[in-house]
Design a protein that fits this description.
The complex is a heterodimer.
Chain A (H helix, E strand, L loop, with lengths): L4 H11 L6 H9 L2 H9 L3 H20 L5 H18 L10 H19 L21 H19 L3 H12 L4 H8 L3 H18 L3
Helix pairs in contact in A: 3-4, 4-5, 4-6, 5-6, 6-9, 8-10, 9-10
Chain B lengths: L11 H13 L5 H5 L6 H17 L9 H15 L4 H35 L1
Helix pairs in contact in B: 1-3
Classes of the chains: A mainly alpha, B mainly alpha.
């Protein structure tokens, strides 16, 4: 990456940008995703920063729903956005929303993570990482950890495509159209899949 | 014939979608959503209960409040100053720190007694 002249040029350009310009920040807040993306393509780190604030939470939720360890999810969230920064010069806008594009990167990052750690996706045992939380209150942390394990255990009993559609739609908050982009399906197919996945999930729940 | 075995009419999926969106608004309950679609009430209840369970768990997967602002600054710093990969860099830095500590420990444990005897003389 560091030997890539395009990347180095963009980094040099961005060094001159002002980070604490309040007016600029307000201006960025008003921009839509496509406009932000265009600025990021031109090496504007402030726009990248705004993009990160907008999209890091759903990406984190997606990753954390597949992982036992909160720290791993945090590291991978950063990695996803770094990959976005590197891929952007080659990114052709083909009508794919930026969120869907980010989730595709997140999926690949997750696959690479499993490969690196020699694990198969989504079916890791809970015992591997018994204390996955960083919150200060030990009681609260234990409850959060148990709830997280409950979500993972329940979702892991579902088929891969069911789990994916539920995580994308309900935990990450993607629309059927965006989910379709990530999963390579039409929005109509996503609606049918989500119905089946929800019915399968309901059969597993004791409510 | 059970309800699930009956084929779904075409307008079922848009109805489910509408119910899911209204349930996601957090101001509506399953029962209040179902009131709008009495025709599909029996079919909609199970998927809506599952969706409500997922929505209730969403908060457990949220990032720590300090994570986004901290990592944002960290990431932008990495882009501005051209670090290869912040995660890799962090690991390498950790390894380097450990190496320096070990080197110092070995150095002082070997030379410490010698230097102390020199000082005594």
């Amino acid at each position: 990456m560091i030997n890539n002249p395009g990347y180095v040029n963009r980094c040099n350009k961005t060094r001159n940008s002002t980070f604490n310009n309040v007016d600029r920040q307000r201006d960025l807040l008003e921009k839509n995703d496509a406009e932000l993306l265009e600025l990021v393509k031109h090496g504007e780190t402030e726009a990248f920063s705004e993009l990160y604030i907008r999209f890091a939470p759903p990406i984190f939720r997606f990753l954390f729903s597949h992982l036992d360890d909160r720290l791993d999810a945090e590291d991978l969230t950063e990695e996803v956005f770094l990959r976005l920064w590197r891929f952007l010069p080659n990114y052709q806008d083909q009508g794919v929303p930026i969120l869907a594009f980010l989730f595709k990167i997140a999926r690949n990052a997750l696959i690479d993570f499993y490969r690196r750690s020699g694990r198969s996706g989504g079916h890791m045992s809970i015992e591997e990482n018994p204390i996955p939380d960083l919150q200060f209150d030990p009681g609260e942390s234990a409850i959060a950890s148990l709830e997280h394990q409950e979500i993972r255990q329940t979702l892991n009993q579902l088929r891969e495509d069911y789990r994916m559609v539920l995580v994308l739609r309900f935990l990450s908050g993607l629309s059927p159209e965006e989910t379709g982009e990530v999963m390579g399906r039409t929005p109509g197919a996503v609606r049918i899949l989500q119905h089946r996945a929800l019915s399968a999930l309901r059969n597993l729940l004791e409510i | 014939m059970t309800i699930s075995a009956i084929p779904f009419p075409e307008d079922y999926y848009p109805v489910l979608q509408d119910c899911l969106e209204r349930l996601g608004d957090e101001e509506q309950t399953i029962d209040s959503v179902l009131l709008s679609y009495p025709r599909f009430r029996d079919r909609l209840r199970a998927p809506l209960e599952a969706a409500a369970w997922l929505y209730s768990k969403k908060i457990m997967l949220n990032p720590r409040p300090e994570f986004i602002p901290t990592s944002r600054i960290h990431l932008v710093g990495c882009l501005l100053f051209g670090e290869r990969n912040p995660i890799e860099t962090r690991k390498i830095r950790g390894r380097r720190t450990r190496l320096v500590i070990w080197k110092n420990a070995v150095f002082f444990s070997l030379l410490g007694p010698f230097l102390a005897s020199l000082l005594e003389h």
